Queue: 2 jobs
Job 1
Amino acid sequence: MDLLTIHGGKRLSGTIPVSGSKNAGLPVMIASLLTDEPCIIDNVPHLDDIETLIALLVFLGKEISRYKDRLEIKSTPSLYAEAPYELVRRMRASIVVMGPLLARLGRVKVSLPGGCAIGGRPINIHLDGFKAMGADLKIEQGYVEMTAKALQGTAFHLDFASVGATENLMMAAALAKGRTTLINAAMEPEIEDLANCLISMGAQIKGIGTETITIDGVEKLHGFEHRVIPDRIEAGTYMIAAGITGGDLTLTGVIPEHMKTLIVKLEQAGVKVEAGDGRIAVYASRSIKPVNIETAVYPGFPTDLQAQWVALMTRAEGDSSVTERVFENRFMHIAELQRMGAEIQIRGNTATVVGGGTLSGADVMVSDLRAGAALVLAGLAASGETNIHRIYHLDRGYEHLEEKLSAVGAEITRSKE
């Protein structure tokens, strides 16, 4: 098992290229299940979650070749309807194969998912949507089994604007009979990216980027060539890295429109941000102002940047509050930040961060992907040496993390435990 060692206190300066989005790339890869024709996907990052999904798609009947950041996906003579526990348990996004397999084969059996321990995240919205489209289902021995002679279009209201459920139901509806309307659908850029990919396959979709998406089913979808959007969470993490180290970083290969909420909050914190065509420049001083945030579904403040923001607020000149409204168990990074000297109190779903203190290096442990990013940021700002353990979580979502940070002045190395 690997660990990261950071010698903090270095001001970051330079340019970081942003990788393709993990959260957009995964559903686009799954969309290849909707067709037997070849599919080409560009800007796919080298991440453990991507490799896990490649293994699952191969198990289900795809042939996949990788050339740098390009995936070429072809079909074998048969498509398999069962996704086993051994593969699905490693990544929650695997559950999104349900929609395409049910639409194509009329049956599917998928293990209940795993993923980061940041909350229950039940899949009831997915299942309720499939039932509304005419699927019969049962749950036995940790597996969901569904059958449907032909999925029927329907109007379905999502109780929560779930990204995964929106993706799952949108892909199933693309091959259903008639019109499906998803009400209170997720509006994240990753949803738009998937919808644009599906349209390039021949799907009939309207309302992209709004909370009401309408899909008119078609009989068949064809292959596609698609470029995955940049990773807005990776970009946001490095923007906060500039703030916490008092540095100046330029991020390339980004879509500034996807970062508007974070940009506003960083500017309120006294960090200067300049956004241009495909780039964002961040200039920070050592003085950070306290700023309160509440996480929300897009276009609100991303829950996937909450932990990183907590790390930044430990450096603020004053107290701030961070309220988590998306996941009920996403403050596990706080105990590790406290080991580094952070003064943070938790009451319910709100953390109060007492600013003005100093962070010092310590041995800390990663509990989930974004918690790991927060500990890296804290290590960059802390005095002394920080050893970050269980970094396999980070390898799920950050491509070449230590190389990118080293290139802009961080003293960070990877080694074996």
Job 2
Amino acid sequence: MIITPLLGEAWSAMRANRTRSFLTMLGMIIGVAAVVLMLAFGRGAQDNINDSIARMGSNLLIILSGTTTSGGLRMGMGSSPTLSLDDAKAIAELPTIAHASPVTSGLAQLIYGSNNWSTQVTGVMPDYLSVRNWLVVEGVAFGEADVRAGTQVCLLGQTAAENLFGSTNPVGKTLRIKQMPFLVVGLLERKGQSMEGRNQDDVVLVPVTTAQRRLFGASFPGSVQHIMAQAVSTELAGQAQEDITVLLRQRHRITDQGLANKQDDFTVRNLSELAKTAAATTETFSLLLGAIASISLLVGGIGIMNIMLVSVTERTREIGIRLAVGARRRDITTQFLIESAIISVFGCLIGIVVGMGGAWLGQVLFGLNAVITGTSVLLSLLVAGGIGIFFGLYPARKAAQLNPIDALRQ
């Protein structure tokens, strides 16, 4: 095939000017490495957000109680106890809801032996663990019988367990919450920080009835601060939000007619939509970083074009000889295109290696999460090859259009 000798000629021409060829590649190396790095760190940031969302819970809905007005001052959402245990049970029976749990919480001092720790004590139903996708790694979770009886049992988060028990397994031990004894029946898996930076492991879970009767009380019997629910699927999260709104309006006797169009005494928040927005924002940011890094690829392509134009000028007599002995113009075009493509592809391969090395260093030295995918590597390779051919086309056509007689006079 004619491509084989042309490849050999292109390689020989590059070897004859090693330094110049390497400097030409350098633009592509830097450009590809920048693209790979930006895409890797952008994908890593997106994965971090997805992990945070997964740790928070999937298809999550939060129902907040209403507001109160005192002395002309309107308090924030959750300041009025308008939600109850029965509301949570009714929400759990909706066809678009997989699980639901009421939540009531407060700060309390925990004591075990000579150790003490102030943390968030949260009263929940057993379904709370399913809503939050939270596993018990040691021991067992409390059940419905504990909720009905209001037993003094608890599940410890990892941070609370470490500060009270150190490396000792807390399951089966008894600690005191507000001077009342609580048996530790389980240890929760580590969740890490939430999207807002809160330590999710610094928590103690107790039966909601125990929290109401023995720890924090309730404004009226059965009232809770808020309710957390999990939709059956992401696609049905919006419908679940509407179903909850309709149900609570019926239960709280809120209608569009009468009572001067009374406003809802609750708020339903769809965290799935917030999660989608955060993921979309991160993805856009990643693409923006990749686009900015791609500018260096463009600069590298211009460098290839400049060097190839210099090469055409230097080899004008050689081109004239080839044309005089019968070489076709497309052969000349192909030869110079191959040279520019080789420079581009070799620069791209080296740039991919440099980019992977930079991503690894970023992880080791700075703790950044970098994810390099086959798609980003293939995309960089194709773009770099395309840029080499595109910017090599003009010098190649200029070489092929030389008049053999004029070229031989050089």
